[in-house]
Amino acid sequence: MERPARETPEAPLDEGEPAAVAGALQRTLHALGDLDLNDLEAVRPGHEALADQLHTQAGGDRLLRDLSYDSALLYFRLLNSACLHILHFFTQRSTFAARTLVEQSRQLGASCRAAAKRCTTPPCPCSSNAGTANAN
């Protein structure tokens, strides 16, 4: 936490603010245990959506009320970076690949069934006669 706080392009943080950012980030990441998502559901929307969900679950802007503008920016940068790493970790687990394949198979099956249904359902007679009735 100290190194990112020193290397941030924002203005240097006041004494005590790095600890406040770390506390807010810790509470936010702790909310990961409260989310009811499997790996695939977490990965699909992306790291920024996960960061938003965690931020909201942890208390939203109440977490930031004691932070300066620059500290809040640092908090969001670190949260987005952490979520990117979390999602990368999820995708590397062996269960993620299996779940992804199962989900893709279900979606493909549903698409094939819908396409087959369209091919076997006769067109509505109303729609084909409408154009020929006016042509006479």
From TrEMBL:
<feature type="domain" description="NACHT N-terminal Helical">
    <location>
        <begin position="10"/>
        <end position="109"/>
    </location>
</feature>
<dbReference type="Pfam" id="PF22733">
    <property type="entry name" value="NNH1"/>
</dbReference>
<dbReference type="InterPro" id="IPR054547">
    <property type="entry name" value="NNH1"/>
</dbReference>
<protein>
    <recommendedName>
        <fullName>NACHT N-terminal Helical domain-containing protein</fullName>
    </recommendedName>
</protein>
